[in-house]
Amino acid sequence: MARVRMSDVAVAAGVSTATVSMVLSGAGSDRISPQTQARVREAAAAIGYAPNSVARSLRTQRTRMIGLVSDTIATTPFAGRMLAGANDVARDHGNLVVLVNTDDDAAQERQAIQALTGQRVDAMIYARMWHRVVDAPAGLPADTVFLDCRPAQGGWPAVVPDDRRGGVVATRELVAAGHRRIAYVDAPRDDEVVASRLRHEGYLEVLAEAGITPDPALHVRGITDAGGGRAATEELFALPAERRPTAIFCFNDRMAMGAYTAAYRRGLRIPDDLSIVGYDDQQLIAAEIDPPLTTVALPHYEMGRWAMEVALGVRESDRDAPLLMDCPMIRRDSVGPPPTPAGN
Amino acid sequence: MARVRMSDVAVAAGVSTATVSMVLSGAGSDRISPQTQARVREAAAAIGYAPNSVARSLRTQRTRMIGLVSDTIATTPFAGRMLAGANDVARDHGNLVVLVNTDDDAAQERQAIQALTGQRVDAMIYARMWHRVVDAPAGLPADTVFLDCRPAQGGWPAVVPDDRRGGVVATRELVAAGHRRIAYVDAPRDDEVVASRLRHEGYLEVLAEAGITPDPALHVRGITDAGGGRAATEELFALPAERRPTAIFCFNDRMAMGAYTAAYRRGLRIPDDLSIVGYDDQQLIAAEIDPPLTTVALPHYEMGRWAMEVALGVRESDRDAPLLMDCPMIRRDSVGPPPTPAGN
DNA sequence: CTTCTGTGTTTAATCGATTAACTGCCGCGC
DNA sequence: GCGCGGCAGTTAATCGATTAAACACAGAAG
C-alpha cells in the first residue's frame, strides 16, 4: 500500500517537507512561488503520495472522525436511515464515522466510549433506536450529541421526533375525514419510551379541539407487533356496535398490520368500513400492504443529519431543550370517510 | 478531555515512559519488578491515564480500525445484521469499525476508499447489500474482504449466501409436503444479481430429483416487491385449473406478501389452498403476516462475522473461491399439504 | 557600501506513544 | 581480584506529519 512519505515528495521536488506540507494543505500557498507549487504537486502526483492521517492527527489533535455509539443497529430497519443521514453530512465535511453497536449493554457501552475516546474522535453521537429519556452514561465527552433520545439531566444537544405533534397530525387526518369515534391502539405503558405518551397527548388534543369527548374504551394497548395490534383491535370490535370505532390510530405500522388482519377476519374492508393510520412509515410494511397504509413518518434521516451537523460544529444547538423534529404525514389509501350508517 | 500523557504517569510513578509503556502494554512485564509495576498501575489509575491511540498507531503502524464500505446501509433492513456481525467480532478483538456508505456511487466509493486508506485502516471490507458479482474497485488494499458479493476477477476472500442451496431447501420443503405443481415467482432478469439464477437452479434441481417435469409456465417474474409478487401470482392463477400451482416459491418475502394478497383476493386460504415459501426472513414481514411465512433466511449476521474474522486475520480464507454460507430454512405456517382434488 | 525589507524556503521542535540498544549494579565463579 | 551474566530499568530514535521561528538572498533606501 501507500508507503510514500511526504519526505519522498520533498526529495523528488527538491524542496523541504515544510514546503510540501504548505503547498499540499493550501496553507501559506501565498508564501510559496507558483513554480515551486507546481513542482511539488507534480512530484506528489508522480509518486502517488497520499498523506498519512494518523501522523497528521497526532500533530493537529484532530482526527476528523466522529464516534457513533448506538444501542442496536441490528434489530431495527430505522437504523440505516439515521446512519445514512449522519454519514452523508460527515462525508460532505471530510469526516469519517466510527460506528459501535452496544447491544444495549452497559458494559459494552462503557467500553465503546473508552475506545472511541482513546481513538480521539473529534466528537461523539449517542444514538438510541427508540425515542427515550436516558441517563447520560459516564465518560461521554462534552461534545456529544444525543440522537433519538434525550438525557434526563439536560445539558446536551439532543434531537428527537416531535411525537406529540405526530399524534396531532395523525388524529387530525382522521377527524378531517369525518370520523368521530377514533380509537388509539397504543404501546404498553413504559415511562422510558416517551413516544407512546406524547402521541396520546396529541390524540387527546385533537379530540378536544374537535369537540369530541374521549371514550376511554377506545384507548387500548398491546405489544408493539402485528399480534399485539390484532389483539388490541379485536378488543375494540368486541365493544357494542354503537361504541365501536370507525377509525383507528395505531402506535406503529406493525400494530396497524395486525389491525388489518383483525379487520379482514371480521369481513371489514379498509378504508370503506374502517380507516387506519399508522406510525413509522416502515417501507416494508406501509408501502406494501394492501391497501397501502397512511402513516406518520419518523424523520430518521433528518435527525441523523442534524446530529452530525451539530457534532461537527456546523450548526448551532440548544443544550437546554431537545430539538423536536417534524414527523410528516404520508398519505396512502387506508383512510376514507366513515361508513354511512346502515340503510343510508 | 483526557489530557493526561504517558509522561505524566511516568513522573507520578517516578520511572521513565519506557517503563510505563512496558508495564501497561504487558510486553516485557517480566523485565519489570512487581513493585514497580504496581506503582505504575496505581499512578496511571490515580491520574486517569488513557493511552492515545493515535500516537500508538503512528508508531506501531496498526490502527486497530477496519474500514467497511457498503453501497447502501439506508435502504435495506439487512444491513444491520451484517454490521452487527462485523461489529461484534471487531469488538471482541479490540478493533473498531469505520463505516462508509457510498450510495452505490462510483465517485463516492473512490473517495471512501481513499479516505480509509489515508486513515490507515488495518483492513477493509467491501460489502454490498445484494449478492452480486462486482468489479473490484481500484485502490482497494490487498487485505480487503468481499461481503455479500464476489469480485468477477477472483483473487480476494469473499463470502456470499449459498443461494443455489437455498433454492434447493425451499423447493424440497414443498416437495416434501406433497406438492408436484410448484411455481417459482422470480425476480426480473439481471445478470449482476446472481441470487435469482442460483435459486432457480436449486429449484430445478429438486424438481429433477423428485421426477417432476418443470412447467415453464410456472416460472414467472415480477419486480421484487409486493406489487410485483401479486401481479406474478395473478398470472399463475390465470392458468387453466389443471396447470395451476398448489405451491409457490417466492424470490423474496416481499413478493410472498404480494402472493398472499393475490391469494386472499381469490378467496384462497394459506396454507390450506396454497402453500408459500419466501426468502430473506425479513422480520417485519415473515414473522408478522398472517399466517406467518415459512421462508429461507439469509445468513447476514454470520457473513458479517466471517468477513470481519478474515479481515482481522483470525480466520483463514480461500482467495480463489468465495465461501458459500448456508441459508437455513425457517418453518412457520405457510406450508401444508396440497389441497385434495375437489370431492375428496 | 551598509542597512533594511520583503520574499521564498528551510530548520527544528512537536504531537504521544513504542522499542532496540544501552547502562549500572550485583552476585558468582575461578 | 577480575570478568561475566543477568536483572531492572533508562536513553534515545522513530513513526509522518504540522508549523513557529529562523534564515538566505535580492532589491531598495540611506
From TrEMBL, chains A, B:
<dbReference type="InterPro" id="IPR010982">
    <property type="entry name" value="Lambda_DNA-bd_dom_sf"/>
</dbReference>
<dbReference type="InterPro" id="IPR028082">
    <property type="entry name" value="Peripla_BP_I"/>
</dbReference>
<dbReference type="Pfam" id="PF13377">
    <property type="entry name" value="Peripla_BP_3"/>
</dbReference>
<protein>
    <submittedName>
        <fullName>LacI family transcriptional regulator</fullName>
    </submittedName>
</protein>
<dbReference type="GO" id="GO:0003700">
    <property type="term" value="F:DNA-binding transcription factor activity"/>
</dbReference>
<dbReference type="GO" id="GO:0000976">
    <property type="term" value="F:transcription cis-regulatory region binding"/>
</dbReference>
<keyword id="KW-0805">Transcription regulation</keyword>
<feature type="domain" description="HTH lacI-type">
    <location>
        <begin position="4"/>
        <end position="60"/>
    </location>
</feature>
<dbReference type="InterPro" id="IPR046335">
    <property type="entry name" value="LacI/GalR-like_sensor"/>
</dbReference>
<keyword id="KW-0678">Repressor</keyword>
<dbReference type="InterPro" id="IPR000843">
    <property type="entry name" value="HTH_LacI"/>
</dbReference>
<keyword id="KW-0804">Transcription</keyword>
<dbReference type="Pfam" id="PF00356">
    <property type="entry name" value="LacI"/>
</dbReference>
<keyword id="KW-0238">DNA-binding</keyword>
